[in-house]
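Checklist before submission:
- one chain only
- standard amino acids only
- sequence pasted in full

Submission:
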Amino acid sequence: MSEDKPLSSSPERILVVRVGALGDTLMATPLLRRLHELHPRAEIDFFCSRLASPLLELNPHLSSIFALRGRNWPLWLSLEKQRLVRSLRARDYDFSVLLESAPRYRALLERAGLKSIRSFAEVPFDASRHAIVNNLRAGGIRDPETGALDMELALSPGDETAAGRILASFPRPLVGVHIGWGPRGRKRNQAQRLRGWSHAGFVELIRRIRNRNDVGIVLTGSSEDAADTANICRQVPDGRARSIAGQTGVRELAAVIKRLDLLISVDSGPCHMAAAVGTPLVVLWGPGRLEQTRPLSSTTPIRIVRQAVPCAPCQSTPMQKTCRRNLCMEQITPGEVFEAARDLAPFLS
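Returned file contents:
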């Protein structure tokens, strides 16, 4: 392994910036751990999105969190960003690691007086390597070992208690099914979105699962997913599948996932939660860049189910905006997903 190159010999304060979704934020946690190992006396702060901030609140390597609600407002119009600039300036950082490519974030850091900024402008993002590896390289850590890529998600006793209460009436073993990803925007139906899978597919998958012994099935999601999960549950006989969509906070959802014997999900933040807390995972993969953003874990098994259609991956390309039919997800069959699940969960055999 190549020698790590710390950005400062003895920094007092370090800022890491990743203002993304849940998975994006978790993929920055290996960098936090390594920075703490290299600079154990330094205070490490994180600038993130408001949505993802609960994932970091108990992280043992952090001193402070700055959470941003309105990421797309220009600085001159955003009182929130102007307050943030003043807060960051007062911290007087020795250096920052910027894991965002949008120019507005570098401009914000420069406005806050940060003179030493390390980013993908200085260490170009390598599209052939995982985002976690690229994050570490931006922070001066080269050629990390496999275990160094594991994500971290700390939970409180309250999170664990809430998860236990929510799942108390479910039979074991317990399989979680997560159907949604992110705010819906204009497409209200998750199945019509690029990473979405059909309700019919989920219904058939759940029926196959329920035919195998006395397996509990819980559908997870946000409050926006509640109507869809309820509709799926109504199509499964005997009430064997039940929804808790909208009943958990972010960390409570992670605690629920930790208690599952298996999670089956589209490509979404809960996939990375499962990898972080050690739950066996099956992911239905569509338009995303597998080599860059797949969930990683050295401690729990993960299976990716995907179809190699010629237009995939389209994520972050012009094709993404013109896609009208997500063939990459349509061509995944319930049988394929069930077989992947059975590989990880002997109780489904």
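Reviewer check: The mean pLDDT is 91.
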